[in-house]
Amino acid sequence: MTQVLERPVRLEPPGEAARTARRRSLLEWIAVHALGVAAALFFTLPFVFVVLTSLMSDQQALTRDLVPDTWQWDNYRRVLDTPGFLTWWRNTLLYAGLGTVLTVVSSLPVAYALAKFRFRGRNLSLMLVIAMMMLPPQVVIIPMYLFWAKQLDLSGTLWPLIVPMAFGDAFSVFLLRQFLLTIPDEYLDAARVDGCGEFRTLLRVVVPMAKPGIAAVALFQFFYAWNDYFGPQIYASENPGAWTLSYGLESFKGAHHTDWNLTMAATVLVMAPVILVFFFAQKAFVEGVTLTGVKG
């Protein structure tokens, strides 16, 4: 009778087995998240480079060094002490803040009507909104400039950029309309049965349920106004007291074209509010953008 010899099983020490399991888990995580990690590094490393350069001395900023020898935090104070920089901050906050409020307040009723009302010409109205989204602003800039500058004499100010936001924005209307389609009509019918008019239904029922969509639209509009360079260049370039950060940064760069540390410090100060706003509101922003595509 042939005896079968079993191969002895090699037992690993408990510590070695745990380390092997951790290595395997780490490799699996890297394999699954490699693309995400690469994308994160692709977007993060330029910002890290800007921050590190902003903390270098004037001489080191012109070298190939990546890390400051001495951390020059005084660069930010020098930028803030630049004549006009705080004025640019104030103008940008006025433009972005007031413009965002006006856009949301004016676009929400239009989006509510397109999403929940049944009337003749509703589809045509929606097509006109979509057509306005496709119209580049450069197409109408000449007649708009003649109207604001020649007829109303508002050149050299930011009001030609702020006032039109009180009449709605095509992209904001479309985005809000898509989000409002996800709100069940039963809630609105219940509010009407309880005696609420359309305006009260909008304020008491729709607005609380549409907070993610409103937050997404507000962030889109705030980012657009904060980073807008074309509008201030057209209407406010002749008056330095009405410049925004995006336009003033170009002037700052021209005045300090060899001081890359100061230019990078000014860039960080311009980017920081946008990054902070998105960091604290990203949950509502992502939820609002995601839900706008649920219904068509």
Describe the structure.
The chain contains 13 helices and no strands. By secondary structure, it is mainly α. The longest helix is centred in the first third of the chain and has 41 residues.
List keywords for this structure.
mainly alpha, 13 helices, single chain, 296 residues
Summarize model confidence as the mean pLDDT.
84
Mind describing the biggest β-sheet?
none
Percent of sequence in beta strands: under 5%
What count of helical segments does DSSP give?
13
Based on DSSP secondary structure assignment, what is the total number of beta strands? Answer: 0
Q: Tell me the series of helices and strands, N- to C-terminal.
A: HHHHHHHHHHHHH
Distance between the termini: 77 Å
Runs in which pLDDT lies below 50 for 5 or more consecutive residues are none
Helix content: 55-70%
Helix/strand layout:
Layout: H1 14-54, H2 74-80, H3 85-116, H4 122-134, H5 141-151, H6 159-162, H7 170-180, H8 185-193, H9 198-209, H10 211-227, H11 230-235, H12 245-255, H13 260-291
